[in-house]
Q: What sequence folds into this?
């Protein structure tokens, strides 16, 4: 990984959550509120549209000292000037993404501890681990792993672990106390009446939790 | 492009056309029948599954002197050892795919003559042009362009043009007479009772048409 990433508050900019709103405007609000990573997750978009968004978002994130990551499409992430890619078990294998992009930030969503260790050995820079709590956004994500499940993965690997799935102002402190380097949120910011204010509140919570740790 | 490709008979290995059958076994039959290019088109598959198929298919195609191309996913194509990628108007732009993969075969499906010229200027090695005839496989593909529409693109660019869309034993000769370097078929091989025999018949037709040209 060529970049040092601040993992504290990680926005999942999921196009399934934003309806007709402008994803770039939402990202701008979230970045103004203190988001430190933005991942574009657009399962329903063709690659060309993701490319166009990433080209606009990457410099915007950089202006805020934040990282811009793309879900799944390593080719898009690399050529659009993003900082990295996030892959899951069904996507391009971590080892292949790493061969293609030696300096990119590569994240992975492991299925358990063995898979987590393997992904790190294959070149993953960080892991997105969850679901931390029950979530309406990804109903197929499996049973909540909670603080204990998160701490197990944190102990198993030497890379940053981001807690994901059902995170909000009510449980962020628990995830961080369990060893997460940051929390990933989607609807907690995107479904808020004021996304910038929601990001600001979460960021304050995260910073306070990390100071206490 | 690092590879000289024989464009004569181009199989669109579309996962939407193969049902529960094994795509690798179908490709093997088609290659045995004389297919010279196999493009994996799997709009409904996650990237990891396409990667696994491409890893198996690329050496098989190579053994037959054929090329293995992947639809849309330049990252998968490059890391799986395929020979190239085929992109459309909604995919990663040709210029971006070319930056990522200087030696890969890059194909493009243009929307008209201006778009065709631009794609070639951006680095496309060949164009897939159609629909040549009405097709049930891609009902949204627009009106058939026929021999005249195909010849117009052939005249406009200096790269090989592959006729695509509704091609079969009945109209292959017309497409080749109009200047196509080859014909792309899906159901003409994949829906045949004997895919290898269908490929063999088409290949004979193509070879005879090209000899007469």
A:
């Amino acid at each position: 990984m060529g970049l040092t990433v601040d993992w504290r508050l990680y926005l999942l900019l999921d196009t399934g959550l934003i309806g007709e709103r402008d994803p770039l405007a939402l990202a701008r609000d979230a970045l103004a509120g203190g988001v430190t990573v933005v991942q574009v997750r657009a399962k329903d978009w063709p690659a060309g549209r993701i490319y166009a968004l990433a080209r606009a978002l990457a410099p915007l994130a950089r202006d805020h000292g934040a990282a811009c990551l793309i879900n799944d499409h390593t080719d898009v992430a690399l050529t659009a000037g993003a900082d990295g890619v996030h892959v899951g078990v069904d996507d391009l294998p971590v080892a292949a993404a790493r061969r293609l992009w030696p300096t990119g930030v590569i994240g992975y969503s492991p299925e358990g501890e063995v898979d987590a260790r393997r992904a790190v050995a294959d070149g993953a820079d960080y892991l997105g681990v969850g679901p931390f709590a029950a979530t309406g956004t990804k109903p197929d994500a499996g049973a909540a792993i909670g603080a204990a499940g998160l701490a197990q993965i944190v102990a198993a690997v030497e890379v940053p672990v981001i807690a994901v799935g059902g995170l909000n102002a009510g449980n962020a402190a628990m995830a961080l106390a369990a060893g997460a380097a940051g929390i990933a949120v989607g609807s907690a910011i995107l479904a808020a009446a004021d996304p910038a204010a929601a990001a600001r509140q979460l960021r304050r919570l995260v910073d306070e939790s990390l100071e206490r740790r």
Remarks:
- The beta strands of chain B are 9-14, 37-41, 67-71, 84-87, 105-108, 126-129, 161-164, 182-185.
- The mean pLDDT of chain B is 96.
- Chain B touches chain A through 22 residues (CB under 8 Å).
- The first helix of chain B runs from residue 23 to 33.
